[in-house]
């Protein structure tokens, strides 16, 4: 129908071992989708070079948003991905033991700021 835009393609994502679940659009990185949903995955450069975000893809398929992500073919074949430059192409299950709730980190930062103000 003219004037109507298509709804975005969205896939369910699960982060193990915590069991957290959220949706990711096909046009955003898994890292960004996780953050928007309140979950922080380890990251640093966010451009696919530092490998801080390297994690295991337990199931599903991703595509990379850059031409040369910093991951070898052997690593990819073994199920490793870089979620900062990976977008979902299906439902995903990721193994990210160091994932954290954004609210938990925000609380820790606020407590650290309060302690710093005392000195
Ligand atoms: S955060 Fe650096 S490669 Fe993903």
Describe the structure.
It is a single chain. With 119 residues, the protein is an alpha+beta fold. The chain has one domain (10-117): Ubiquitin-like (UB roll), CATH 3.10.20.30. Helix content is 24%, strand content 29%. The strands form three sheets. The protein has a five-stranded mixed sheet with strand order 2-1-8-4-6. Strands 3-9 form a two-stranded antiparallel ribbon. A hairpin with a 3-residue loop joins β1 and β2. The longest helix has 16 residues, at 102-117. Bound molecules: FE2/S2 (inorganic) cluster. FE2/S2 (inorganic) cluster is lined by residues 43-46, 48-53, 70, 82, 84.
Supply the number of structural domains. 1
CATH third-level topology: Ubiquitin-like (UB roll)
Rg of Cα set:
16 Å
Report the bound ligands by name, code or SMILES: FE2/S2 (inorganic) cluster
User: Strands of the largest sheet, in order across it?
Assistant: 2-1-8-4-6
Protein name: 2Fe-2S ferredoxin-type domain-containing protein
Keywords: 2Fe-2S, Electron transport, Iron, Iron-sulfur, Metal-binding, Transport
Domain 2Fe-2S ferredoxin-type: 11-100
Pfam families: Fer2
Features:
119 residues; single chain; two-stranded antiparallel ribbon; 3 helices; Ubiquitin-like (UB roll); Beta-grasp_dom_sf; five-stranded mixed sheet; globular; binds FE2/S2 (inorganic) cluster; alpha+beta
